[in-house]
Fold Co-chaperone DjlA N-terminal domain-containing protein.
Amino acid sequence: MILIGTMNLTRTRDRGNFYCPTCRTPQPFRLRARRPFLTLYFVPTVPIGAAEEFVQCDSCRSTWDTSVLSMDRQTHEATIESQFRDQAIRSAVLVVLADGEISENEIDALQTIANDLLERPMDREELGRLCSIAMENKVLAKNYVLTISRGWNQDQRMRALQAMFLAASAEGTLQPQQIAILSDMREILELTDMEYEAAIEEALQWQS
């Protein structure tokens, strides 16, 4: 009986230092290449595909496309911040939609939050698309924030909470669904009671 199969072989081609987007500090890296091989009796014999190169951080073990090596710290941080702003706006939209509808006051509040608090201009058309996608896919604010907030730093967590609170309170009162979501955010965002209260208090001052 002949045993034939496939396996990936990974080799280190180079080493160096780079700015790791996960660690957010300069770290050593390995430039690695992964290539599929045909195996005969579990021994790799013939390459059956092109080698795929990737960068691996020696510290956190995260992997990246090789283009990460051409980006400096400033570019990385700008990219991460831009991504955060998009995510924070989506989080605020989901909190507003928790009661199944969105009002003109809430639309105005979301645009103001995007433009002023998050410095991410947003027109009504884009906002409408975000709302439609969220409703069609039945995305829940709690699940969404739990998934994407792991990469946020402390300042971003505070700003995201403020955005969600301001959006939820656009009508002057909070609906029960929104109160429950905002309450869950303290644990989801891993904030202390003091940090949570400070963020809400600052949001109230910004609102006034």
